[in-house]
Amino acid sequence: MSQGGAAARGAATSQDKGWAWMVLLAAVLLQGLTLGFPSCIGVFFTDLQHEFQASNSETSWFPSIMVAVLHGGGPLCSVLVKRFGCRFAVMLGGLLSGVGMVSSSFCKSISQLYLTAGLITGLGSCFSFQAGVTVLGYYFVRWRTLANAMASTGVSLGFTLWPLLSQYLLDEMGWRNTFLIFGGILLNCCVCGAIMRPVQLASGSPLQSPKPAEEPGKRAEGAQLSNGASSPHPELQQQTRRTACFQMLQKYLAFDIFCQNKGYQIYTIGVTWMMMGFALPHVYLVPYAIQNGVEERRAALLISIIGFINIFIRPLTGLLSGHRVFTGRRIYLFSLAVLLCGLSNFICVISAEFSVLIIYCVILSIAMSGIGALTFQVLMDVVEMDRFSSALGLFTILESITLLIGPPLTGLLVDITSDFHYVFYNSSFFLISAALFMGLSFFALEKKTKLKEASKVPLDNPSRYQYNEMPTEPQSESQSPPAVVYITSI
């Protein structure tokens, strides 16, 4: 065995101990500060409506923009990480998040809130969260799966604590001062980023900021530009630039996989449609409870109940889905969780009493745990791991679009009808239809594959017609993790 290989293996082994666990603790805190933060926005919904004399639809644009940017900014974050490294991206995200919320406390109109809390804070949260998850891939090799599972508990902790803190501060000092304090709290993302120092390879080069391989399009463009001064055909330069642009899109947004892989196509469409209704209860549950006579503190407690149950159920769901019995069947577990999530909304329609709403939150939290634990695992099942990063880039951008437009459209319907029940009718429609679409489509895909195998008809490209679970074995210890993986959480 070569000395270089032994040194690389030793460097990889050292990544799973010592300072790596401090980085994991910082990642837990980061996920609570970023992904958990939008859960508290419903607490301020009524106050913001009164302050700016805004409709349900206008007010709901604020959390929708925040969540959509948080989920859809993955490709931008990946460019930032490749250029400057994970530590810089996390700290920049913390700075943007803090500045966004501090600026929000001085807003004079709801449209200004879209820019400050929605766009700036959402983008900052995206940078901090996704770069924070990416750095775990560098610090952990052997225990990478465990590290990601433990880090995801930060989301549940955020869901539990943010609404309670928000309601307390809102009662004590109003929403403007609360947003000002939130700005200071979110600046702690910078502290988390400072902990995430670059990992060193055995050779001494930083692992966290790898130099990206030069793209063929860039090489071609460079060659063309070097001769550009004497070239009589500038349109060739433009064509080369277009080619480089297309290759960049191909790298970060896998349109070719979407067109060729039927499993990825079905799953992406199903989840994108599902997101039209998935976020609605998080935005409207608190104002719905308050409108029906529930005390504001108790209404805020409902979101915390969802987060608290998630702390325990999500890891159990992840362990259950990893059992060999469910190999190749995780898409059906995911569809079942989405179906349960949609059916649970009818509980709110039956009654808005606090005790009934608690039952609703318990069932919704169990279903959400299944969705959160399986979303990206199923994606890994239907896409080859060497294209997972680009497939996830397109996946998150499409789902962010429906996350953006879902709550405002439902808010418009509530404004027209003055009936909050339509929130839960809408949510159920999108979730149930998405669950049936995904479950039945994958079942039909499997059946079609079995018929083709039985008749022994050769397939030109089997991945276009069947749902195959792709191997998700952890990388060997001597192999460095990918430069960037877009990660979101539900």
From TrEMBL:
Bias (Basic and acidic residues) ranges: 212-221
Membrane topology: Multi-pass membrane protein
Single annotated GO MF: monocarboxylic acid transmembrane transporter activity
Renumbered residue ranges of the record's region Disordered: 206-236
PROSITE patterns: MFS
Major location category of this protein: membrane
Tagged with keyword Transmembrane helix: yes
Compositional bias ranges of the Polar residues kind: 224-236
Keyword terms, alphabetized: Membrane, Transmembrane, Transmembrane helix
Subcellular location: Membrane
Pfam families reported for this sequence: MFS_1
Major facilitator superfamily (MFS) profile domain span: 20-451
Annotated Gene Ontology cellular component terms: basolateral plasma membrane
Transmembrane segments: 21-45, 61-81, 88-106, 112-139, 146-165, 177-196, 266-287, 299-319, 331-351, 357-379, 391-410, 422-445
UniProt protein name: Monocarboxylate transporter 6
Organism name: Eudyptes sclateri (Erect-crested penguin)
Name of encoding gene: SLC16A5
